[in-house]
Amino acid sequence: MKKLLLLFLLFSKTALFSKTALFSQTVLNSLPLNLNFLSKTQILNAEDEKTKDIYVFTWDDKNINILKYNQSLFLSNRFTDSIKHEKSRNLIGYSISDDKKPTLYWSSSDNRNILMTTYNTIDRSSELLHFDFPENHDYIISSFQQLNGFYILAKERDQDHLLLYKLENGKCGVKRFDFSNFTFENNKDVQISFSKFIEQYPIKKIDPDIYTPIDLALSISKMFTAKDHIILTFDDSFIKTQAYDLNIKTGDIQEKTFNFPASERQSQTTNSFYSDNKLFQMKADRDFFLFEIKDFNSGNSIKNYSFSKNDTIPFKNSPFVMQVENSKPRELKTTEKFLKNINGLAGGISVFENNKNSFITFSGIGDYSDYYFSYDIYDDFGERISYSLNKSVYFDAMLNENLNFAKDFQTRPLAIENLFYFLKNNKDIKLYDALRLRDYYILSYYDSTSQQFKMRKFTDGFMIEDNGNPITNKAQFSKPAAFSNIKPR
Hints:
- By secondary structure, the protein is mainly beta.
- The protein has helices spanning about 195-200, 215, 335-340, 415-425; strands spanning about 20-30, 40-45, 55-60, 65-70, 75-80, 90-95, 100-105, 115-120, 125-130, 135-145, 150-155, 160-170, 170-180, 185, 190, 205, 220-225, 230-235, 240-245, 255-260, 270-275, 280-285, 290-295, 300-310, 320-325, 330, 345-355, 355-375, 380-400, 430-435, 440-445, 450-465.
- The protein has one domain (about 10-475).
- Strand 23 and strand 24 form a beta hairpin.
- The longest helix has 10 residues, at about 415-425.
- Keywords: Signal.
């Protein structure tokens, strides 16, 4: 799907800023670093979740540099090793062993073999191991880190199960999640296998540490990770969300069904989002906007909101915004106009948790038809020519820790917003990675001009040189293209 809301769009009012803001950021570290062949260079941040030490991996076509920082972010160790077999591979993740040895995982181009390189930063050595996927391996759905272990969720060819590989301490464990006893249907309401279902609706992993891009929030099949659990949600039906709780420790699957809020007519603009053991569901048509929060374990409703086209939505923290193709976004003044424009589009909802508050974006993207009259000398009445355009609409809202909506147009910038604002205004930074820690973010990047590796800390809030807050609402921030955990070579 064509992405309409790129990073710069919600900074579109930047030109209106008359004052200079010094956002909450601190330079933590800076050290000389010479990297070659920058087009194939990467940076990866990693946290030891047990000791809270931070590792930064930077590499080029010759060497890999390992920088180790303690929890106070002081450099405690530095190790450089040569790169040989990893050159033709893609880095897909990391783990940290109980004896504090980091391991990087490099996948072959066909994703059938993984090279595991373990680094000993004490005696300055490294060790290589290979892992081969089974012969029937089809593809990798996604990967993630949890409690210092590295997990790969994979699909076998023509099988109705998923395999979860855990790579840690030089060993590999596997859990098998069997979906053959569950019912799935295609878009024509014909029963199909799980394998065919996720082929039609590919599973998309959601990163909880950044704003979810709007086009990703519209996905029908989503994957969320929680402690010892993987949550899969499927919104192929306009009536319900089908969810599956995968227990990482036991391999058990629990199926859950959450009906969308009831309305007088069936709506095609529906979706859901899992966050912090809650399921957020939205539903909209030309007359009503419905929103409900449910407890994921019990299925009970926690909050339920309903607004008609004649109502004012009191918790709106941004204008109603609409954009057609690549034209300038414009504001929709009323709830009626918003519902008219979102009706029939693919619906999306995303939630970003920050300091006990939940920042929510309700959205819709899709094609709509229009027409014009073409006149020629043979037809005085003209010919009606139809065409389709891509349209997106959305607005932002905020929930407090009690899940009540809070209207605050002067909400201070969040750390992630400050980070993206910094990148927007420093376009020469091409090589970077971000890591979320407690209540702040670390941005690691390479300054090619000074040949320096730098780390910056970003927190919520801002300082202003003159009066006035240049950022007036969340609509000025994008739902940006996500940081991938690893930037592909």
